[in-house]
């Protein structure tokens, strides 16, 4: 019988964990021809999440727990879980807040039987999101897909089923600053989607705010490739050409028409504009240098505090 691992990263999810367990158990009991195991990754929770997980794992061997030494972030937690799930025939990534409905498991399994290696959940609409979040999310996907070597599906999160060979391919990638949605797309293989309506969080509070989402977006864009650096080079070249042409026009008016050269106001606007351009350029370069700095240090993406019911 084929095995499917349910990979669930958690950070302070004590309110919703019992409900997640109940809902998921009801779903997997209706799936035939597959056995399931849970791989919970406790990403440095400071509440009772780990205690509740240990209660679930007590005498329940299909429940495996990886507890990280601190909060390393969701991308690191997913990487830790994939390393443990590598022996399963497929892995399904789910969030514990039930915004990834466990009922998707049934649809994922049906597509997996049809031979797909990656089946991702794609939101039908974002009407429940705020106007700002809809606009910012749409802008991110457009910018990312315009710059990336491999585009990612708009409105698709981490919730997906991946086959063993996809998991092995993702784990073989050496980078430490990981943008998992981009990596899942980059490795390729036969892919399809399942549409769903994203419900509200069942309990607890989201751990994401706009500042974290902004930094996550920057990390994703710089992870997509070096095209932003090239584009900024072209932008600088275009500005230089424009500045040269404008200087020739100003000089021509002074020499041939006797027009006075513009004074203090125009000079200050020009200085401030080009100073801003230079600072933005340094910022773009700095983002890439920061990624290089992290990779050169070669620190592991996560450190495990303890494992329960795991194979190693």
Q: Structural class, judged by helices and strands?
A: alpha/beta
What is the first-to-last residue Cα distance? 22 Å
Number of helices: 10
Mean residue pLDDT: 76
The CATH topology label of the largest domain is Spore Coat Polysaccharide Biosynthesis Protein SpsA, Chain A
CATH superfamily of the largest domain: Spore Coat Polysaccharide Biosynthesis Protein SpsA, Chain A
Helix residue percentage: 40-55%
Element-by-element helix/strand order: EHEHEHEHEHEHHEHHHE
Strand order across the largest sheet: 7-5-6-4-1-2-3-8
Describe the overall structure.
The chain has 2 domains: 2-205 and 301-308, Spore Coat Polysaccharide Biosynthesis Protein SpsA, Chain A; 227-297. The chain contains 10 helices and 8 strands. The chain has helices spanning 17-28, 49-57, 74-85, 104-113, 131-147, 164-171, 180-187, 210-223, 227-257, 264-297; strands at residues 2-10, 34-42, 63-68, 90-93, 118-123, 156-163, 191-196, 304-308. An 8-stranded mixed β-sheet has the order 7-5-6-4-1-2-3-8, sandwiched between helices. The protein starts with a strand and ends with a strand.
